[in-house]
Amino acid sequence: MNKFYILNQNDKLWSKFIMKSKQYDFYHTSCYHGIEQKFAPILFVASFDDDFIAFPFLSRRINDTNYFDFTSVYGYCGPISNKSFENVSKEHITYFQNQFNTYLNENCIVSVFSSLHPIINGIQLFNNFGKVEDINKTVAIDLSICPDEQRKLYRKSNRSEINQLRRKGFDVLVATTDEDIEDFIKIYYDTMIRVNAKQDYFFNKNYFFQFLKNRCFETKLLLARKDNQISAGAIFTITNKIMQYHLAGTKEEFIKDAPMKLIIDEARLIGNELKLDYLHLGGGVGGSDEDPLFRFKSGFSSSRFMYRTWHYIVNQEIYNELVNLSGARLNENGNYFPLYRLS
Fold first, then answer.
1. In a domain, 206, yes or no
2. 187 with 270, same domain?
3. Count of CB atoms within 10 A of residue 56's CB?
4. pLDDT at 38
5. Omega into 338 within 30° of 0, i.e. cis?
């Protein structure tokens, strides 16, 4: 029996479909979508025979109009299924596309944007269905190989600096108290100010506590310290064999020591103990060694994935009108999407 579900974050079916998926990550869970305060989370599910395709979004009203658009949560989202996407039938994909299109047109949805998960490849869903763009490469430590081999793939300078950090007396602990979380939040905010990060990265304090104490996926806040002083911290998630390096920060006085390298190495060891598949570190701005963040991450592994985004214009006429009203120009501003939200 074929059925198309439209679920909100409080619907218990959301979690049931996620848990039945062959691959998924914390980005797909109702808990992570529930942290979003400004927009309404929706999970679309196309059930076809004994299989399903699920795709979560955030619904946003387009200012001063009766129109809406869809976007995705911060991070790597995209579609998931109970099967590998290369084994999902063309008939099932067509069914999802047709049902999704019907909903979009009936509910005044002008455009759809989604970040796509680098490891969970669902690109087959987008054949003749919008536009997929390659954004940048990401880095992952392959935890399926021998731990000693993992470390051999580190950049030589990384191995040396991690050894030096231990000799200098740095160690890593797993945060267990609200005070630990508060210490990390301050370090994170100070880091975002120092690197002149966009306002989007300044999550409020409730975000951190909700995230670290959620009921859908496991989290670990790892803190590096020396002489009982916290020098750096990073939040990692553990979901369905994938560990993600989520948010991180380092105290300014410890930048030269680079304690984050020790934290990542310890996270890798935890991943090995839990028999995970990957520690995904993410990418940088450009996905090349010219970008300092990517160069930092690439020093831990030679494994690469491609981060992509999906853009879909549902109603081209209304989209063009909104772009014109916004003062943006269709032939300028590169890959920004949707263009009418450029400010």
1. yes
2. yes
3. 28
4. 84
5. yes
